[in-house]
Amino acid sequence: MAKLIYSMITSLDGYAKAAEGDLGTGADDQKVHTFINDLFRPVGTYLYGRRMYETMVYWETAHTEPDQPPHILQYARDWQAAEKIVYSTTLESVSSAKTRIERTFDPDAVRKLKAEADHDLTVDGPNLAAQAIAAGLVDEYHLFITTSVVGGGKRFFPDGVRLDLKLVEERAFDSGLIYARYRTR
């Protein structure tokens, strides 16, 4: 059975999206990007909400921009190779291959996807992840923690959820970014 992984960049104070501005430094480092490429290359399906999909669809055409470095081209190829499911009640069409729209998040359908998948899945975006966490679907949490405290915004973990996790991997980068991978106990 495949794992469902929730992974995002987060501020030091736990926000996946800052109320104002960005999440700070550390995530734009080439070493970090190459690490992320290697980490998520085996992912077979990305589960997105509309806003996260609209951010990530950049990778459908990133390879067409001139002078892209190899790590950017590799991520674009990996992203294009994966299946994408966008959960949205408002999105009318998608602009990437291997992508379909689902109008509602159905935990049982995601359980079936996990059971039948040959490759891991990710759930991306704090709103959609909150639904997957509440349904007990997330197997691993991959946090990329920046050096900034942003003071507010959209939290990485939803309020009102208690999780007992086991730290299984950690890495610090020269940029100050910290990667921490936790598994559900």
UniProtKB/TrEMBL annotation:
This is Deaminase. Gene3D superfamilies: Dihydrofolate Reductase, subunit A. GO terms for molecular function: 5-amino-6-(5-phosphoribosylamino)uracil reductase activity. Residues 3-178 form the Bacterial bifunctional deaminase-reductase C-terminal domain. GO terms for biological process: riboflavin biosynthetic process. Pfam families: RibD_C. InterPro entries: DHFR-like_dom_sf (IPR024072), RibDG_C (IPR002734), Riboflavin_Biosynth_HTPR (IPR050765). PANTHER family: 2,5-DIAMINO-6-RIBOSYLAMINO-4(3H)-PYRIMIDINONE 5'-PHOSPHATE REDUCTASE, DIHYDROFOLATE REDUCTASE FAMILY PROTEIN (AFU_ORTHOLOGUE AFUA_8G06820). It comes from the Bacteria.
